[in-house]
Each structure stands twice: as structure tokens, then as C-alpha cells.
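Whiteboard transcription, Tuesday session. T.W. wrote the C-alpha cells on the left side:
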């Protein structure tokens, strides 16, 4: 009986965690659409940008854009500082938990285990950027072309030839 009530509670939390971002995204988009649709655009109607960016639209507007700027600032504060404070709070909790360990050796071991998760390296960031900007786009055509029967047959021939050649040389 207890399992069923816990499962119901977990499903309710899951539903909220799925619904809340959708609802907040809808409200956010709707508020921007309403505020932007009330603007008067007196300059050129050609946006000098690669895509329809908010700042490019605000530059074309002749009316007061302070409401949109305030909304953007408030959103930036919420989207930046709230996660920052949650991350700092979690680090403080981790450090407090480690400091409660009675032995110095235990604290050292816990810090050495957690330190790799708490540190940030720009070199890692560069590696990840290279990976998702070059490696993935390079492998996409290979992956999608392997769906073709002719490409699969040619790939099998290549694999057989390589294995035959390597077994012949040994």
C-alpha cells in the first residue's frame, strides 16, 4: 500500500516537472509576442541580422522598448543567478558534509573524489566544443549513408578485405 502512494506521488512530481517548463516557456513566449506586437516600427522593415533576433527588432522600433528590456533583464537575472545560487548552495552542502567526517584521511579521500566533479577546466570546454562541432557533423553522413543497401554491401566488402589482408600477413 505504501508503494502505491509513493508511486502516485512520484508520478505527480513527474507530471509537474514535465508541465512546468512547457507552461513557463509558453508564458515567456506569449509575453514577448504581446510586447513586441505593440511596438511601432518606423525604420526599415528589413532586419539586418542572420535571424529574427530580439535586439535587432528593438533597434528597428521607434516606440518605448523599456518594458521589453526590463523583462529581458529580469529573465536574465532569474536564469543566471538562480542556478548560480543553487550550485553554490550544493557545493556548500557538499563541503559541510565532508567537513563532518571525523578523520583527516577520510576528508582528504572525500575531497580528492569530489574535486574532479567540482573543478572546471577551459581545456575540457575546448575539447567538448571540438567534439560537438566537428566530430558529430562528420559522422552524421556516414551514419545516415549506412542505411543504404549499396553502401552497406560496399562497407561489408571493405571489412572482409581488411580482415582477409590482416589475416594473410600474420
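and on the right, the sequence the group agreed on:
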Amino acid at each position: 500500500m505504501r508503494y502505491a502512494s509513493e508511486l502516485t506521488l512520484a508520478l505527480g512530481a513527474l507530471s509537474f516537472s514535465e508541465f512546468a517548463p512547457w507552461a513557463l516557456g509558453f508564458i515567456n513566449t506569449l509575453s514577448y509576442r504581446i510586447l513586441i506586437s505593440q511596438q511601432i516600427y518606423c525604420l526599415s522593415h528589413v532586419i539586418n541580422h542572420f535571424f529574427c533576433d530580439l535586439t535587432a527588432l528593438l533597434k528597428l522600433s521607434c516606440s518605448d522598448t523599456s518594458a521589453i528590456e526590463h523583462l529581458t533583464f529580469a529573465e536574465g537575472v532569474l536564469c543566471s543567478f538562480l542556478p548560480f545560487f543553487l550550485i553554490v548552495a550544493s557545493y556548500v552542502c557538499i563541503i559541510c558534509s565532508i567537513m563532518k567526517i571525523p578523520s583527516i584521511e577520510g576528508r582528504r579521500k572525500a575531497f580528492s573524489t569530489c574535486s574532479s566533479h567540482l573543478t572546471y577546466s577551459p581545456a575540457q570546454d575546448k575539447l567538448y566544443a571540438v567534439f560537438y562541432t566537428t566530430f558529430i557533423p562528420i559522422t552524421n553522413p556516414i551514419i545516415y549513408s549506412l542505411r543504404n543497401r549499396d553502401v552497406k554491401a560496399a562497407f561489408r566488402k571493405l571489412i572482409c578485405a581488411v580482415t582477409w589482408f590482416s589475416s594473410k600477413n600474420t
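Someone added at the bottom: The chain is about 80% helix and 0% strand.
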